[in-house]
Design goal:
alpha+beta, two-stranded antiparallel sheet, 11 helices, 69% helix, 9% strand, elongated
Length: 419
Amino acid sequence: MAKKDSGPSRLACIGWSIALVAAVVLEAGTGIVLLISALLIPFRIGRWPAAVALDWLRGLADLHRLWAARVMGTPIVRPYRELPESGTGARLHGYLSDPATGRDVRWLATELTAGQVLAAVPGVGAFLTVVAWGAAVNAWQRSNGTPLDDYGLYLQDQHRNIVLGVVLGIVIPIVTWFLAKPALRAYAWLQHWLLSPAETTRLATRIAELTRSRDDAVDTQAAEIRRIERDLHDGAQARLVSLGMSLGMAEKLLAADPDAAQQLLAEAKQATGLALSELRELVRGIHPPILADRGLAGAAEALALSSPIPVELTTNLPGRPPAPVESAMYFALTEVLTNMAKHSGASSAWIRISHDAGRLWVMVGDNGRGGATMPEDGGLAGVARRLAGFDGMVNVASPIGGPTIVTMELPCQLAFALS
């Protein structure tokens, strides 16, 4: 079976070509401001325009990365380090100390030359087609006139122009038709080559991400251990200590006051039941039995049924993820649903669970008021930290007015087929 052609249609390539060529105005303006401000930096007055120009440069590079990924199917990794949030001097220093800034500058220089040549191919072909047919029509109109002299020679010239215009009007669109997509693919490849991080930078960024996720995972694990210790100390442990005291007093009273001993034994029995109940709740918080018995799909169904907001659940899991991944995603889903019930004001919600390309995907959406964010001390940030320990990601799309969609993903392989 023939492979389906990817990317935009040839007609869409013309539109993208015109847009990419038009963007040269912003690119050239950014380059000019960057050059002038670089010359003025020693005099301090160039710091602010240099920081602004580098902001624009990074934004333009990001737009081209987005275009290459969304339109041409050529994803480009974003290689930048984090910048200080305030202070022009600090931001400028952050830009200048980032190796990716040098790649952006080289990209801009190439984009204004070779890049524009490749991007312009479909648009220039369409423009020349219009010019060729316009020239043919104009020559035809002129041939119908009556010149004062040299009519034969004049008519011969106009006929030659008509033929030339028609031939070019046919040949140029055919050439453009075959070159449009290859030209934009070559342009996308050029963007990938120029804007992708160097291997050393990519590895350094990856190491920094793994270090940060490891630290977050350690902090999360330590907080979980402290919670378990606190629950044991304040709950089951206190009841077991009380149980031991009651049994000791009952033992002393058994001969002297059997009725009082009987009452203490009854209280001890009640304390035993409460201690067992608290231990079950504690164990359920560590790894819910329903998750062990029915897997993530069954546990998600139980969460959907217990939600105060009606939740529609769709699952597509041909197998079962490893237990640690299931547990992490289950508690992440629990936190998202809890946040939704508390803050969204939604009347309905949905959950989609699937596995694709070696990744477990869980999407949660609602029709609430929107505006959800991920503050550092918020529940969604905690979800992100929990999943980061498994090299996972969380994305929140929540415009004001809704809807809110939280996407969570974890890399994993399904362990075995579900029965």
